[in-house]
Write a structure and sequence with these properties.
Elements (H helix, E strand, L loop, with lengths): L1 H8 L6 E2 L10 E8 L6 E7 L2 E6 L5 E6 L5 E7 L12 H14 L5 E6 L5 E5 L4 E5 L6 E2 L5 H8 L10 E6 L5 E6 L4 E9 L2 E3 L5 E5 L2 E3 L9 E3 L4 E5 L2 E6 L4 E5 L6 E6 L1 H4 L13 E7 L2 E6 L14 E6 L10
Helix pairs in contact: 1-3
Length: 329
């Protein structure tokens, strides 16, 4: 019955979307290269109090506190002892591909997102194992006990079917008892679970959104074409869920209970300027923080050089849109 509910709630789209009215452009305030990330590949950002934190999808045993006192940021290593990963009900085929890829590229856990609650607990999502690690301010890290229905309902709705396209981002409410997860692509989706005593479980159904299909890249992209719809990170701010949609080069505000899009803003005009372009034919931004004054967006460039020769990870600061993030179209 729960699988049927997930299928009923999942919205499956297969068309190519072309925006009739371009999203308003965000204004870039600054950019910051990040030194000191052993594995490079900045794949998630979070703000805990006054501190910015980052993860790399190539490091299984550490997260990073970012020293932002200078224009070039320094990543300070925080070691974590990671316990054995619990079974997440992913099929054997996906698990074996994760295991094999770890020998080639490193990063068996494949950390793809980080978020914080008001108590300072950090939560890191493992794409490779569809699991969430809790890293408290003090004491040992532990894996959240998540109901296997999360993965089962996601897969029944067309999510978490592709290798290297599982959970790509997460967000948690300040109280630390409600969590959103982003399924990356083919299809992409948004899921929500709640803490019920010691178990994190679906509240009726896990899947808020499931959609496939293609979306046109922005006109600033060289030789723009249709690319898979995707989510690459999440941020919760002022009661709204914000999605980083890298192939469309935009940030969208969504209703946290229905995942319905309320408004989107583009960063294409700034990040697709010639000196900031990367040679890949898709977006590379994988980290997002939205706050009252603007947004932080970080890139996972896999040590690949952009047009000006920069190979280090980069984080950009954008100003909040005119009228703020709650502005209506």
């Amino acid at each position: 019955m729960r699988l049927g509910f997930a299928l009923a709630c999942g919205l499956l789209l297969t068309s190519i979307t072309v925006s009739a009215e371009p999203a308003p452009q965000l204004r870039l305030l600054s950019e910051h290269v990040v030194d000191g990330m052993r594995g490079g590949n900045l794949s998630g950002l979070a703000q805990c109090g006054k501190d910015l934190w980052a993860v790399s999808d190539r490091d299984d045993d550490q997260i990073y506190r970012l020293d932002t006192s200078e224009s070039a940021w320094q990543a300070e290593t925080v070691h974590i002892d990671v316990p054995t990963v619990p079974d997440s009900s992913l099929p054997w085929g996906l698990k074996s591909r994760v295991w094999g890829a770890s020998f080639v590229r490193g990063g068996n856990l494949d950390f793809e997102g980080i978020t914080c609650d008001s108590a300072g607990n950090r939560y890191v999502v493992s794409e490779g194992h569809a699991a969430v690690l809790q890293v408290p301010p003090t004491g040992p890290a532990s894996w959240l006990k998540i109901s296997p229905m999360l993965v089962r309902e996601a897969r029944a709705s067309g999510l978490l079917l592709q290798f290297n396209a599982l959970f790509e981002g997460l967000a948690i409410n300040p109280a630390g008892d409600q969590m959103w997860l982003a399924a990356e692509r083919q299809g992409r989706g948004l899921l929500m679970i709640k803490r019920k005593q010691t178990l994190w479980d679906c509240d009726g159904g896990c899947v808020l959104l499931s959609e496939a299909g293609m979306e046109m890249q922005p006109e600033q992209f060289p030789h723009a074409k249709a690319a898979p719809r995707d989510f690459s990170d999440l941020s919760l701010f002022n009661g709204k869920l914000f999605t980083l949609e890298r192939n469309a080069y935009q940030i969208c505000r969504r209703d946290p209970q229905t995942a319905k899009v309320e408004r989107c803003w583009s960063y294409a005009a700034e990040l697709l300027q010639e000196n900031r372009r990367y040679p890949q034919n898709y977006g590379l931004e994988e980290a997002l923080i939205v706050d009252a004054d603007g947004a932080w967006v970080g890139v996972d460039n896999n040590f690949g050089a952009r047009a000006d020769g920069e190979v280090r990870p980069v984080v950009w600061r954008f100003a909040a849109p005119e009228g703020g993030w709650s502005a209506k179209p």
